[in-house]
Design a protein that fits this description.
It is a single chain. This protein has 511 residues and is α/β, with parallel strands linked by helices. The protein folds into two domains: 249 residues; 227 residues, Rossmann fold. The protein is 50% helix and 15% strand. The strands form four sheets. The chain has a six-stranded mixed sheet, with helices on both faces. Strands 4-9-5-6 form a four-stranded mixed sheet, with helices on one face. Strand 13 and strand 14 form a beta hairpin. Helix 5 crosses helix 6 and helix 9 packs across helix 10. The termini are far apart.
């Protein structure tokens, strides 16, 4: 059976070649932090391009979901982890074979690499057969692997490895030391004087004693004396070393490209699973989303900002989850409420959900139905750059113009506190025009704003409000609920912060 990739269902899904540029929205959504942390400890696999490359077909996303579900089972996960460990040993031995100096030692490490490789390929073939994966990806790989193991090329490799190792294991020799002279001889049933000496001292043994011997490190490098001894052994026993020479020449490219690619790509799933495990251990829910490009009705319950959750779970701090949904003609979340109440986090969550869904990964939350967008844009507030000779308002307008030019009806646009540098009237005028453009495109959008009138522009807009504690306006609940904005929570919070409530003003006047 043909097998293409464990990550990409078809070649058209776009397996990245080389590096992949970081998307523009990564910094705004903290996805750069997510990728950096998720790939930590996986440097040898270069997983970053995979975490920056999204899928554009529903079937390709389902393909990854199936593999991830298989790996949720402990038996298959152990098979993959054992395979990865053995492949790491193979690469380590190959690295030593390239790094070391003496030819025969390089050949020995190359033989060790081939030995680990044969063992791990046979082990994962048996392991996949016994575990019975359900995903198309692992079933196809298992079927391909069965054919590969039975191929003449692999069978010859295993035979050659066993033959060379067996022949080398039969080499026995003696070393005669006389001052600085070293003589290498074939073994001829000489007595083992080491055993003889230990037998003499055994009679004086009076029980267990503390070991005062100095620990000797077994360095992989040979010194010149050891190298010469090995050369002499090869002269005395030419056949085993001739077989080793021939093996290293004939099997120079023993590592199969498909198996090497599988070893790298499967780590994408392992890395993501490892990243979210901290959140799962804290009781947070993840789900495999239903992703569709045919409907813009979306839903996710008990969802959260994945990067924020990872940090809070590491610090043993509780996290507040939120629900979100759009149905019918609804396309735009207008998020308002007091500062530091979770509005920006809500926008990031919305963007992260859709990006992770296009990666084919389980997303934060339950009962998730998400949209298969074509491009994602983020316009978050940035500090004014004095070097570009543009004011903040001009910069906001130019960035927003570029987004509207590039967006389509299938795009997602995230806007966070834009036009905060101008007057309320101007900001309201500009936001109405921009949201009007987005409504005409029928694109999905999250608009975090202090202008609550934007939530009443039409049936496409939905008001979401970050709430405070009713009896303590300065305390944020970090819950963002679907309800009309009234402005009172924001006003009360600001007044309390600056001591401008009715009671505080009366106190000061009375004094």
């Amino acid at each position: 059976m043909d097998f293409h990739s464990i990550l990409f269902e078809t070649p058209e899904d776009g397996a990245p070649s080389g590096d992949v540029a970081e998307p523009d929205f990564f910094g705004d959504l903290n996805l750069d932090q997510f990728v950096g942390e998720a790939t930590r400890g996986f440097d040898e696999y270069n997983l970053t391009p995979f975490f920056r490359t999204v899928l554009n077909r529903e079937s390709a996303i389902t393909y990854r979901h199936e593999v991830m579900r298989d790996l949720d089972g402990p038996e298959l996960l152990l098979v993959i982890q054992a395979f990865a460990l053995a492949m790491r040993k193979t690469r380590t031995c190959l690295g030593e074979a390239q790094r070391l100096y003496y030819r025969r030692q390089k050949q020995w490490w190359f033989l060790a690499a081939a030995t680990h490789y044969c063992q791990c390929v046979l082990a994962i073939c048996d392991g996949l057969s016994g575990a019975g994966p359900r995903s198309r990806g692992l079933k196809r790989f298992g079927a391909w692997l069965t054919g590969h193991v039975g191929s003449g090329r692999f069978m010859k490799l295993c035979h050659d490895v066993e033959e060379v190792r067996g022949t080398l294991a039969g080499v026995r020799y003696c070393i005669h030391l006389n001052g600085s002279a070293v003589t290498v001889l074939n073994y001829d049933d000489e007595d083992d004087y080491g055993t003889f000496v230990l037998g003499i001292f055994e009679r004086f043994k009076q029980g267990e004693v503390k070991d005062h011997s100095v620990e000797q490190k077994d360095w992989p490098e040979m010194n010149h004396v050891e190298a010469h001894i090995l050369d002499f052994v090869a002269e005395l026993n030419p056949l085993p070393f001739q077989l080793l020479d021939a093996f290293c020449s004939d099997q120079a490219d023993f590592l199969d490209a498909t198996i090497a690619a599988f070893d790298r790509e499967i780590q994408f799933y392992i890395a993501y699973r490892s990243y979210i495990q901290l959140c799962r251990d804290a009781g947070l829910k993840f789900s495999y989303p239903v992703v569709s490009g045919a409907t813009k009705s979306i839903r996710c319950e008990e969802t959260f900002d994945l990067v924020l959750a990872h940090k809070l779970c590491a610090d043993k701090v509780a996290l507040v989850c939120n629900d979100l949904f759009l149905e019918g003609p609804e396309r735009i979340f207008v998020v308002s409420g007091p500062n530091n109440g979770g509005k920006t986090t809500f926008a990031r969550t919305f963007g992260q959900l859709h990006f992770l869904a296009k990666l084919g990964c389980p997303v934060p939350g339950r009962n998730s139905h998400l949209f298969l967008y074509d491009r994602l844009f983020a316009h978050f507030e940035r500090e004014e750059n004095t070097l570009d000779l543009r004011g903040k308002l001009q910069d906001d307008l130019m960035r927003m113009h570029a987004i509207l030019q590039a967006s389509t009806p299938n795009s997602i646009i995230l806007m966070n506190e834009i036009f905060s540098s101008t007057t309320l009237a101007d900001a309201l005028f500009l936001c109405r025009r921009i949201i009007g453009e987005i409504m005409e495109r029928d694109a999905l959008c999250v608009c975090v704003t202090f202008i609550e009138e934007l939530a009443r522009l039409g049936p496409q807009t939905v008001s979401m409000v970050s709430e405070i504690k009713p009896d303590s306006p300065s305390v944020r609940t970090f819950r963002v609920r679907r309800r009309p904005a009234d402005g009172r929570a924001y006003a009360l919070s600001v007044a309390e912060q600056y001591g401008l409530t009715y009671e505080r003003i009366k106190e000061r006047l009375a004094s």
